[in-house]
Design brief:
This protein is an alpha/beta fold. It has two domains: 265 residues, Aldehyde Dehydrogenase, Chain A, domain 1 (3-Layer(aba) Sandwich), CATH 3.40.605.10; 189 residues, Aldehyde Dehydrogenase, Chain A, domain 2 (3-Layer(aba) Sandwich). Helix content is 36%, strand content 21%. It contains 14 helices and 24 strands. A seven-stranded mixed β-sheet has the order 16-17-18-14-13-20-21, sandwiched between helices. Strands 10-9-8-11-12-23 form a six-stranded mixed β-sheet, sandwiched between helices. A three-stranded antiparallel β-sheet has the order 6-7-24, with no helix packed on it. It is globular. The structure holds succinic acid. Succinic acid (SIN) binds next to loops.
Length: 499
């Protein structure tokens, strides 16, 4: 018989808005970066702090003319940058890496203010972001072609790797620094120039990173930033410009599919890192305490707002009750509050729309008979209490759409084949997790999961040197590691008759 695990609805620690808020310096840069200059267009849009709604900055709203100018600069700068030596590019990237780490605290606070990531977690993101720059500073020196044996004595065959050309990069709000460097660092290392359009909620981290790139010696036009409230006009200019050779996007599957179609008109190279719906499978032989720690890390990091957060937690029936009891205790200990308070573990959701989606998923699960063991409501603002649900069943929205919030639906399973089928029964395939001490089962399950990333006893597998990306509707291509660099390189084959 199942243990009856009941809990008060808001047992976690919560700080009140304004409790930990202190005066913060204004962001340094709020204008667009076009060519080598900071540019105001006369129009601005507001960036608001999701914790208390206060105005963080008024940011220049870039328009189609800025996009056309940026494209001209990106093309001109590409002529020079693509001809620099790998050593030169590597040295500038290395200085950018140092500068990012030197400004870790400032960047973390900026991120906490623009999207609500708890500042302690944001410091981790700054290190993660810098890690991509460090890795690609090193990798720049390892871009090399191959020689191919010929069947003819008079011929020599080889390949060159060439930068694809100017790149248009669109980055999301959930990792305002790391998703910028994960795209921009390999592009710059390869010899490409980049026009970056950061998410409208989080332009400030991107602008500051670009300022640090210039300070590190990054040449004018190699990295330009076009913040804008409505991404469509700027994106249309750049997607339909045949001189822009590559489009790289992180965001929703719906937008990714539209960009895929539009990119075809100029035959762009594409990288699309889209949505996920990650299953986390805890097998009967799992170390329950360790599994609980990792599920909490996977589910609640960034308040559940990552593409790889656990969305569906399948626990073997033999350990289900023990797991739920310990999981509940861990979740109740999470500290919700002001992102600028270093003790906060769960900040607010990015905006009211994000909150509404989480509320809708929980209400739908409740009306279908799910039990709310913790959380289940907003304690104020756009925050949402870390929530644990049991009694979740097929057909509920939470099992079909990405919740992007701090809600953990737990289900019991009994059969390995059945749980693999359930895990794979979604149109997306970004990340999946398995918790087991049986090596054979670990291999078997990893190979059966239709996902681009599998964490075995690891709830947070992403790291700069490894490939990140999905299958099916989760996108195309990979970021990170040498795979992420090759997304920005074309292969040129050269055949030489030596006479
Ligand atoms: C994402 O949500 O797309 C990024 C997650 C990560 O890099 O860990």
């Amino acid at each position: 018989m199942r243990m009856d695990v009941r809990a008060p609805i808001f047992p976690f620690h919560m700080t009140t808005p304004t409790a930990a808020r202190s005066a913060r310096p204004a962001p340094r840069v709020t204008q667009a970066l076009v060519g080598d200059g900071w540019r105001a267009t006369g129009r601005t849009f507001d960036v608001r702090d999701p914790w208390d709604g206060s105005l963080v900055a008024q940011v220049t709203d870039a328009n189609e003319q800025d996009a056309r100018d940026a494209a001209d600069h990106a093309v001109a700068a590409f002529e020079r940058w693509s001809r620099t030596s790998a050593w030169e590019r590597s040295a500038i990237l290395r200085r950018w890496f140092d500068a990012i780490l030197t400004h870790e605290g400032e960047l973390a606070e900026l991120m906490a203010r623009e999207m609500g990531k708890p500042v302690t977690e944001a410091r981790g993101e700054v290190k993660y972001a810098a890690g991509f720059v460090e890795f690609y500073a090193e990798e720049a020196k390892r871009i090399h072609g191959e020689t191919i044996p010929s069947q003819f004595a008079h011929k020599r065959l080889h390949t060159n790797l060439k930068p694809v050309g100017p790149v248009y990069a669109i980055t999301p709000w959930n990792f305002p620094a790391a998703m910028v460097t994960r795209k921009v660092a390999p592009a710059l290392a390869a010899g490409c120039t980049v026009i970056l359009k950061p998410a409208e909620a989080t332009p400030l981290s991107a602008l500051r990173l670009a300022e640090l790139w210039l300070a590190a010696g990054g040449p004018a036009g190699t990295l330009q930033v076009l913040p804008c409230l409505d991404p469509i006009p700027v994106s249309q200019v750049l997607i339909h410009d045949p001189r822009i050779r590559k489009l790289t996007f992180t965001g929703s599957t719906e937008v990714g599919m539209r960009l895929y179609a539009q990119g075809a008109t100029t035959m762009k190279r594409l990288s699309l890192e889209l949505g996920g719906h990650a299953p986390f499978i805890v097998c009967a032989d799992a170390d329950v305490d360790a599994a609980v720690t990792q599920v909490v890390a996977s589910k609640f990091r960034n308040a559940g707002q990552t593409c790889v957060c656990a969305n569906r937690i399948y626990v073997h029936a033999d350990i289900h009750d023990a797991f739920v009891a310990r999981f509940l205790l861990a979740v109740q200990g999470l500290r919700v509050g002001d992102p600028l308070d270093p003790a906060t573990q769960i900040g607010p959701l990015v905006n009211g729309e994000a909150l509404a989606k989480v509320e809708e998923h929980v209400a739908d699960a409740r009306s279908g008979g799910a039990r709310v063991l913790a959380g289940g409501a907003s304690p104020g603002g756009s925050s949402y209490a870390p929530t644990v649900l049991t009694g979740v069943r097929g057909g509920m929205k939470i099992l079909e759409e990405e919740t992007f919030g701090p809600v953990a639906p737990i289900m019991a399973y009994t059969d390995e084949a059945e749980v693999i089928r359930a895990a794979n029964n979604v149109p997306v395939g970004l990340a999946a997790y398995v918790w087991t001490r049986d090596l054979g089962r670990a291999y078997r399950m990893a190979e059966s999961l239709a996902y681009g990333i599998v964490g075995i006893n690891d709830g947070v597998p992403a790291t700069p040197q490894a490939p990140f990306g999905g299958v099916k509707n989760s996108g195309l291509g990979r970021e990170g590691g040498h795979w992420g660099l090759h997304e920005f390189l074309d292969v040129q084959y050269v055949s030489t008759v030596i006479g």
